[in-house]
Design brief:
267 residues; mainly alpha; single chain; 10 helices
Length: 267
């Protein structure tokens, strides 16, 4: 962890703003840009520090967005708690494995994951599901065996790469429980917050979180999120086009990361 220069302050603020803006504008996938922005724009030299710092910023962003969805009644807390508990175990294991992985190899794998995120965002999901789904004593025997293994796997991925994992959590919740897409988006924020904090704590124990940088990045994200959400209202009729355009941006960044990682391997 190093002291921030004025230039890094500005770049971190702008990078956080871009992530927050993208999340507010298209509603998902934006947090996956945090690591490449920290590495290639802000200039964080250690990929592990970028992942740990990103995980903290993602967790805070998800927690803030959770408040909005909670007020709108979109969060299924029973399902969210179960997914988070099992996912935290996966995130702890994944973040431990990620710390032990070579930094450049980790960035290369991250680039592959970004391509998957881009392809996922480019697809328009079907709006199906039951709004009355909930987890209690009467439904636990049916829902828990479906939630637990999926949450473990998704949590591992989120911890390993230091991402929110919403692009994995949302469809997983829909598949495991049958809830609506809107409920899955709101419910996923509980898990994203939990996974991010677990990953950030694990990385912080090894000194891989740059706290001053994280605070600046989060501040930019808050401002960008407000701006993105405001503009999203004006462009609501073009949501599909925005998703496809943003998916293309993610894949271009992923290709850049793969090329940079490949050149680093070649020396």
């Amino acid at each position: 962890m190093s002291d921030l220069t004025l230039l890094q302050d500005v770049l971190a603020l702008l990078s956080g703003g871009l992530v927050g803006f993208s999340l507010g504008l298209v509603g998902g996938g934006g947090s996956v840009l945090a690591v490449p922005l920290l590495v290639y724009v802000v200039g964080v030299k250690d990929p592990h520090t970028a992942i740990g710092t990103s995980a903290l910023a993602v967790a805070v962003s998800a927690a803030i967005n959770l408040v909005t969805h909670f007020r709108k009644g979109n969060v299924k807390f029973g399902c969210a708690a179960a997914f988070a508990v099992f996912g935290i175990i996966g995130a702890a294991l994944g973040s431990t494995a990620g710390k032990a992985f070579d930094g450049q190899s980790l960035l290369a794998l991250f680039g592959v994951v970004m391509i998957v995120v881009g392809l996922t965002m480019a697809r328009k999901p079907a709006e199906v599901g039951r709004p009355d789904i909930h987890l209690d004593r009467s439904t636990a025997a049916n829902l828990l065996p479906r939630i637990a293994p999926v949450a473990l796997g998704v949590g591992f991925m989120a911890g390993f790469f230091g991402i929110g994992g919403g692009f994995l959590i949302v469809p997983s919740l829909v598949a495991a429980t049958g809830m609506t897409m809107l409920n899955a988006i709101g419910t996923s924020l509980v898990a994203i917050t939990a996974f991010g904090l677990t990953t950030a704590l694990n990385y912080a124990l090894s000194g891989y979180v740059d706290w001053p940088l994280a605070l600046v990045f989060i501040a930019g994200g808050l401002a960008g999120g407000v701006a993105g959400a405001y503009i999203a209202r004006w462009l609501s009729g073009r949501k599909g086009a925005l998703d496809i355009a943003f998916a293309g941006l993610i894949m271009l960044v992923a290709i850049y990361m793969l090329v940079k990682s490949g050149l680093a391997f070649l020396g």
